[in-house]
Amino acid sequence: MAPASPHDDAAERLRHRAVALRALARRLNNLELHHLHRHAGVDTWMGPSQQRLELDLRTRRRALIGAAEALQAQARRFDREADQLAALPAVDGVR
Amino acid sequence: MTYLAYRPDRLANLAGRMRRASDELHALRCDDPAAAEVMRSLRRSADELDQHWLPLVDRVLRADPLRAPTDPRHDLAAIENSLARMAAVELGWAVANDPTADDPTRTTAAEAHALARRLAELDIDDVLDDPAALEWLTTEATAIAHDPALAAQFLTEFDDWGRWGSAIARRRAMTLAHLDDHDVAALDGAVAALARVANAVPTPRLAWLHDMPPYAAALFAQHLDLPARRLAAVYDTILQRPSDELDDLRGPNTADLLLAALLRDPAACTEYLQLAVQHPTTLLDSLADPSLAEQALRLGTDPAYADVDAAGRILPTLLQFYAADPSREPGTLLADLVSPWTLQFSPANHDWEAKAAERNRLIRFALRGDGLQRFIDNRELVVASAQAQLAARESRPADEISGWVGLIGELVVNEKVRLVEQRRKAWDFVCNVASTAASFARGVVVGVVLTVGINVIHDHWGPRPEDAEFTAIWGNDAALTQAAAMTADHVYSVWVTGQLLPEDYPPPPDIDLGAEMPSETWMGQLWDWWDALPGGYDGELAREMRLSVYTILNPHTMGAHTAHV
To answer: How high is the pLDDT of residue B491?
Structure first.
């Protein structure tokens, strides 16, 4: 059995990182924070604090969505880099 | 607003969800450096929930809510607590002080909505009798007016304009008539604020103005910020309504209010006059202060604000109205109004619809009596206005300009002006008109007209500052020479512009009004000037100018007019 290539190790690490980022992105998409603004509207309470909280929650929700998308994009980049490394020739013709 | 209205069960549910959200955020883990920024952002969200929002919601839930409507700590009947009242009484919610309200003047959509509902059920006198409540209403309405979303919320619910408008208007009018005693400035402030709320949405509907008597409608309408044409239509509609009892009280009436507002908005004033001349009595006969109508007419027909078309829709109709009613005495107003628009009364002008004969009749009507004197006093305005209009045009038909000069000459000599000083002014006037015309039309055409116009004026009353020393002979001679000199100047300027002469070439001689016979002196100097022209006396240039100048003044006519006199 041929020894593992250093490229293979690096590619494997990148794939692990991509998996971790995707897992985090999935968790972000399922947080309760996504839904809080629906329970903080004028059906629940009215006043200056209500307006501020609802605005704050909507802002954080948008940030959460942006963060999850950024994590997914980074994961895709890691996967691409891993594929490129795996396609490189083995050192000293091992592969 | 400084309090919160809430449903305790739902707020408790929100608190529970916020705790769960915080726990979830704290439980998230990811050591990858690529997620570091995201993790920091998530921790900030968790901190904000833990340290700010959850304690706030918990504090509200733990607090003893203000009980409606009998709670002595909170007067829910007060206008400023409209939202609390609506929440507590109508919805059965709890009400508590807002622990984070740092700006008591901040208005929420819910509050705008609640205020509108409350205004419909309040006893207006209770509010108007309470200076603090009236001030609060003004402040609140001002805040709502600044935010179209809040205004829309308010207007969705408020439909009690007639009652509020009538009540405020009555107090104001009665106070100004010394029949009551209220703070007019405070009432006006409330009116302005409420009117601006109505005006704050993108396409304001103004049907509510019809729910008010005219005086009240005028009070509100003067604060509307609308395009000039629409505002004018609103004002015109109000002024056509029958007056109400408040108009009969001492002090400014409906028309005074609106005309005063128009004087602050020249574009709307011009638009309004175009509507008002169709029924001029609403403008002229409704005012407690008739001078406002004159001011509006002067402003709205001022060329600074009115274009030719607008003036054409106003002035002929207005003049016809006055001409048809001998009982009206406009004094010198009409002379002032026509002064900036004399070009449009020229026979060959077609800017306005009225025919030449009718326009001639109307301007003569405007200048009857003291109007002529005033017209002569306005001579600088007449000339400057015509000059500005001519300069702005692409084409300047010679017959129109000639007709204008002739018209002014005829108008000015149409009546006997006895005073020597006035004769001098008339002389200056026609000369200035002629000079202006000469700068826009070809010399010959103008020269011919000048011959007619200026001769006419001097046949009647030549420039004789000292009657004994100046004779009609001198007057005619000076007039003809002046016309010829202006024609020569015009031809000369055409040559310079066309580079037939260099820019620094000396101009034709000036007329010497101190000479015993100005034509002889001037003509002698002109011959010398022709001799010096390129080509000399018999050259092309001298011959061209002779064709123009001799049409007006030549050795033969010089002798003729002297012999005639």
So the answer is: 82
Q: Share the mean pLDDT of chain B.
A: 83
ipTM for the predicted complex: 0.89
Cβ atoms of residues B328 and B289 within 8 Å: no
Give the contacts of B311 (CB within 8 A, at least 6 positions apart).
B301, B303, B341, B344, B352
- Determine the Cα–Cα distance for residues B3 and A46; give it in Å rounded to an integer: 9
CB contact under 8 A, A49 and B56: yes
The pLDDT of B450-477, averaged and rounded, is 52
pLDDT of residue B168: 94
- What pLDDT is attached to residue B469? 41
What does the block give as tokens for B562?
A: 């002297």
Which chain A residues touch B if contact means CB-CB below 8 Å? 17, 20-21, 23-24, 27-28, 31-33, 35-36, 39-40, 42-53, 56, 60, 63-64, 67, 70-71, 74, 78
Contact B300, B266 (CB under 8 A): yes
Token output for A4: 């593992």
Q: Is it the case that residue B178 has pLDDT exceeding 80?
A: yes
Residue B407, token pair as written in the block? 């018209």
As a whole number of angstroms, the distance between CA A75 and CA A22 comes to 6
Region B495-499: what's the mean pLDDT?
A: 88
pLDDT in tens, B107-146: 778 888 888 988 888 889 888 988 988 998 999 999 999 9
Closest CA to B343 of B352, B332, B330, B331: B352
Determine whether the interchain pair A39/B34 forms a contact, defined as Cβ–Cβ distance below 8 Å.
no
User: Are the beta carbons of A32 and B11 separated by less than 8 Å?
Assistant: no
**Contacts with A36 from chain B: Cβ below 8 Å:** 14, 17-18, 21
Query: Does the pLDDT value for residue B486 go beyond 70?
Result: yes
